[in-house]
Amino acid sequence: MKRIGVNCGSSFGHSTRYLESALDLAELLVVRAYGLTNLSPLKVLDRGYAIVRKPSGEVVKDPVEAPAGTDLRIRQAQGELTAKVTDSKQ
């Protein structure tokens, strides 16, 4: 990592480059942090997706895992629903 330094001597050009590099790095970190925030599970739920689990907590990834009669917990952004599977198709 480059060291940031500011002085008024003959190396002012070097200090300016260090400062520009630091600002570029800070901008990159902000962009990356924004991207990670949007991928967080809670942000995904905010966009309308849900996590479907069995009462045991196991995530249901395929309809075969939840045949008719299976109780489910459906996690959404603002809360949770409970449901019972009446039909399962693949």
Description:
By secondary structure, the chain is of the alpha+beta class. It folds into 2 domains: 1-39; 49-84, no CATH class. Helices cover 38% and strands 17% of the residues. It has 2 helices and 3 strands. The chain has helices at residues 12-39, 41-46; strands at residues 51-53, 71-76, 79-84. A 3-stranded antiparallel beta sheet has the order 1-2-3, with no helix packed on it. The protein is rod-shaped.
Task: Summarize, please.
The protein is of the alpha+beta class.
Topology:
Blueprint: H1 12-39, H2 41-46, E1 51-53, E2 71-76, E3 79-84
Antiparallel strand pairs: 1-2, 2-3
State the main characteristics.
90 residues, 3-stranded antiparallel β-sheet, alpha+beta, rod-shaped, 2 domains, single chain
